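Input record, target 12 of the design panel.
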């Protein structure tokens, strides 16, 4: 163990540790307070909900949880599993308390680090067991966290986080800066010049960052492949830091798009957990991604307000789902290969009508929820609502209006997805052929093999699968022959200028012809002008949607399209 870590452990021992005791019996709580209170700060609660509230309100303040596995509300096992599986809580060791010795193996498998059998025996046993568990657990975590990154010789992420906590406790009144340094387009270096040159670049950057933080009495880590975190006493030296890092690496590469970006969150709010502080710096850093002239960005009030707004959205999402604040709109799609457009299907699009914030635009909440995985809850909500609505229209009008719903890459990676979506459709009394699934083109290109296998299973079940947003990512025309799809949706970027630019029109015609040869239906998105519609019709595009026909509308308004065209719908 290195000298710095020895000092770190010795100083941490001066900090009074806190223990959370989760025991239903009030008399037992008094005993634990009396025994453990001799050396530790003790908080006692009676049930799982109170325990969760206490932990989540201050996840870094607890050194141990003593958990009665026989809580009155039967929440002990859920609580133990939550602490063990949550990355933000798994640093807290749990000692299980139970009178059933046969439960020992079970609680240890779920995540407890020790087991204390009732009756507990002498008070010294409880105190000694708690102290021994905390010290052993802390030692094992700190030893694991002492490792340096082999390449850059900066701290690993785990040790960096531990040291940030130590610095905050050691000097709580010193203003600190959280800084993120990111190498733009680093993957290009590895792809074009090889791993060796990329590693040399990281080594040099790590060396310069290490010298800088040593000089200014801070710490740094290599957070991931091409990102570095720095925690320093407040200063206005970001420009100096940038020059120091850049010095000596420009001889390695000459790509104009490969450069260093620096995001700074000055005078951090120490009430925020460590990860959130650096998320603020990352927000600033990402703001200048793609802005060639910019190299340093500061987290400011505008970014703070946006982050606060985003956090509000995340906090309100579950309540919004329960209260049906999310409303499913429907944008009609029309078959355009007849004398006049005829309704052929609809796309389900979610809107959030927040009781306090008003209409929250999809481009605000959907990317946010895609980033943190919460989009899966919204997707399932939309799937069920769309299936219910389609069944209602089918009964009311006597015709089926196929509805397409969006399916994210995250959804497709879920092993239970095919069964889940099939059950939703079946429970609504629908045929799978009436329910279309829109999968973005990027999903096919990012996880091609697995996505293709899932799509094949869906088509075997009878679903129609659409490739959405074709043309926005890494599309190639020859990929159409290898991708299992029924419908190709031309992105608005293809359609927007076909009536103004001959090259754009020729590209669309080429795609339509290839799709037609492969027996793939083509739908054009974003049709806004009569000229676009006429050209798409002329060159064989099967269907279209866009503001020329209708904006997305609520179900009641959509019904006018069914009434108008139900006699001509197939």
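The sequence produced for target 12 reads:
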């Amino acid at each position: 163990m290195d000298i710095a870590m020895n000092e770190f452990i010795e100083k941490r021992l001066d900090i009074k540790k806190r223990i959370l005791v989760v025991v239903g019996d009030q008399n037992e709580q008094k005993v634990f307070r009396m025994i453990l209170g001799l050396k530790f700060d003790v908080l006692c609660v009676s049930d799982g909900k109170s325990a969760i509230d206490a932990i989540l309100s201050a996840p870094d303040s607890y050194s141990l949880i003593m958990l009665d596995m026989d809580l009155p509300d039967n929440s002990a096992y859920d609580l133990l599993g939550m602490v063990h599986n949550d990355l933000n809580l798994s640093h807290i060791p749990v000692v299980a308390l139970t009178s059933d010795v046969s439960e020992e193996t079970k609680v240890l498998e779920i995540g407890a680090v020790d087991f204390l059998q009732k009756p507990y025996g002498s008070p010294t046993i409880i105190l000694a067991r708690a102290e021994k568990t905390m010290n052993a657990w802390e030692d094992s975590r700190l030893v694991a966290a002492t490792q340096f990154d082999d390449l850059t010789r900066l701290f690993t992420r785990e040790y960096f986080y531990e040291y940030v906590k130590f610095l905050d406790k050691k000097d709580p009144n010193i203003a600190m800066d959280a800084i993120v340094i990111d190498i733009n387009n680093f993957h290009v270096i590895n792809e074009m010049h090889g791993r060796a040159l990329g590693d040399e670049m990281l080594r040099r950057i790590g060396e310069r960052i290490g010298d800088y933080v040593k000089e200014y009495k801070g710490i740094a880590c290599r957070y991931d492949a091409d990102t570095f975190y720095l925690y320093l006493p407040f200063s206005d030296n970001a420009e100096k830091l940038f020059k120091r890092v850049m010095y000596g690496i420009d001889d390695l590469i000459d790509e104009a798009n490969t450069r260093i970006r620096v995001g700074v969150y000055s005078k951090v709010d120490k009430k925020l957990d460590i990860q959130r502080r650096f998320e603020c710096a990352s927000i600033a850093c990402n703001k200048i991604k793609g802005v060639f002239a910019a190299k340093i960005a500061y987290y400011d009030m505008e970014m703070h307000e946006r982050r606060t707004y985003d956090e509000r959205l995340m906090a309100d999402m579950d309540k919004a789902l329960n209260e049906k604040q999310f409303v499913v709109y429907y944008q009609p799609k029309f078959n355009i290969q007849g004398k006049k457009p005829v309704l052929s299907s609809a796309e389900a699009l979610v809107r959030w009508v927040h009781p306090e914030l008003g209409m929250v635009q999809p481009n605000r909440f959907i990317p946010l929820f895609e980033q943190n995985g919460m989009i899966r809850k919204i997707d399932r909500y939309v799937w069920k609502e769309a299936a219910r609505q389609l069944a209602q229209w089918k009964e009311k009008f006597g015709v089926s209006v196929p509805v397409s719903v969006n399916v994210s890459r995250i959804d497709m990676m879920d092993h239970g997805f095919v069964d889940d979506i099939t059950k939703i459709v079946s429970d609504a009394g629908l045929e799978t052929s009436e329910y279309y699934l829109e999968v973005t083109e990027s999903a096919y290109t990012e996880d091609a093999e697995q996505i293709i296998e899932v799509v094949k299973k869906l088509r075997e079940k009878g679903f129609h699968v659409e490739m959405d947003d074709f043309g926005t990512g890494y599309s190639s025309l020859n990929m159409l022959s290898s991708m299992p799809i029924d419908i190709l949706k031309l992105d608005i970027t293809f359609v927007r200028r076909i009536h103004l630019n001959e090259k754009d029109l020729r590209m669309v015609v080429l795609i339509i012809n290839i799709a037609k040869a492969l027996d793939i239906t083509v739908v054009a998105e974003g049709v806004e002008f009569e000229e676009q519609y006429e050209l798409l019709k002329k060159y064989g595009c099967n269907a279209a949607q866009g503001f020329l026909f209708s904006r997305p509308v609520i179900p009641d308004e959509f019904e006018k399209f069914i009434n108008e065209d139900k006699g001509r719908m197939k």
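The chain has three domains: 3-145, 157-299, 317-565.
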